[in-house]
Amino acid sequence: MQSIKDFYTESLKSDPVAHYAEMIGAVSVIIGSSILTWTVLNPRPDIFLPFYFAGSCASFFGAYRRGLPWVLVLTGWFIIMNIIALSRLYII
């Protein structure tokens, strides 16, 4: 248990801005995926997509601050996919 606490403490100490951006990203995606899980038989993309988009953007920023190129690729891809999905939902 102490190693888990040390892991999060070190993350916070090494870059507090990135740490909180990553936390916001994780919480946002958790909320979005929870909404999707509970509405799977009648999905509500108008509710869960904004959470996914916000979480992806926050995670991208945290990965940029920490210099994590492959996390940037993955979260950048999620941002692009969420922009397409939001555009199709609200514009097209």
Mean pLDDT: 96
Structural domains: how many: 1
Query: What are the low-pLDDT stretches, counting only 5+ consecutive residues below 50?
Result: none
Tell me the structural class: mainly alpha
The count of β-strands is 0
Radius of gyration: 15 Å
Strand residue percentage: under 5%
Distance between the termini: 49 Å
* Helix proportion range: over 70%
Overall geometry comes to globular
Return the string of H and E elements.
HHHH
Report on the biggest sheet. none
Q: What count of helical segments does DSSP give?
A: 4
Can I get a quick summary?
By secondary structure, the protein is mainly α.
Description:
With 92 residues, the chain is mostly helical. It is 87% helix and 0% strand. It has one domain. The chain is built from 4 helices and no strands. The chain starts with a helix and ends with a helix. The model has no long low-confidence stretch (mean pLDDT 96).
Question: Which secondary structure elements does this structure contain, and how are they paired or packed?
Answer:
Elements: H1 2-14, H2 16-38, H3 45-66, H4 69-90
Helix pairs in contact: 1-2, 2-3, 3-4
Overview features:
mainly alpha, 92 residues
